[in-house]
Amino acid sequence: MERERTDLEVRLARLERSQRRLRCLVATMIALIVGAISLGATATPQHPGTIVAESLHLVDKQGQVRILINPRAGVSLLDERRRPRAVLSVDNTGPGLALYGQTSKAGAIFNVNDDGPAIAMRDNDGNTRALLTTGAQGAALIMSDEGANERIALLQHGDQPSLSFIDRSRRIAWRAP
């Protein structure tokens, strides 16, 4: 039992480090984009070196679009098959970063909205399998099975943590405290 707790603590610490690094990456990317937009907004279109466009497509040597920038899609990094693999965007709820695997279903989504920051990890079927979030109610780490049913919930409300295991019939099988 003590060994399992240590493994969980180690994995949670790695996840927290990864989340901090990704937050820094997102903040840096947002700062760069905001800076670029600010520079573009202050320059007049007649100013040499200024590009004014509704969309920007950066292509590779074969002419394939690899980076797409526009107000609707944000900044999208595309693979050789033109599939989005990383998307940085801002909407009316806040900034978000989506990283995709081989399909647009699998991946990780990082966002910050009015409720606070969240990280969702999705499987190949698009089901959220792990969710890490913080907000006014506290912090939560929720893990789900392949059917997107919550199975493990680690919650922190105020100074009261709890750990729950949920069975297949969606009833709490075990809880501490």
Question: How would you describe this protein?
Answer:
By secondary structure, this protein is α+β, with helices and mostly antiparallel strands. The protein has a domain at 1-52. 23% of the residues lie in helices and 45% in strands. The chain is built from one helix and twelve strands, in the order αββββββββββββ. The chain has a twelve-stranded antiparallel beta sheet, with helices on one face. β11 (160-166) and β12 (172-176) form a beta hairpin.
Give a brief outline of the structure.
The chain is built from 1 helix and 12 strands. It has 177 residues and is an alpha+beta fold.
Which structural traits does this protein have?
single chain; 177 residues; alpha+beta; 1 helix; 12 strands; 45% strand; elongated
Bulk shape: elongated
Helix and strand pattern = HEEEEEEEEEEEE
Low-confidence stretches: none
Total beta strands: 12
Mean pLDDT: 84
What is the number of helices?
Answer: 1
Distance between the termini: 16 Å
**Helix/sheet category:** alpha+beta
Tell me the major beta sheet: 12 strands, antiparallel
Q: How are the strands of the biggest sheet laid out side by side?
A: 1-2-3-4-5-6-7-8-9-10-11-12
Task: Assign a percent range to the helix content.
Answer: 10-25%
* Amount of beta strand: 35-45%
**Cα-based radius of gyration, to the nearest Å:** 20 Å
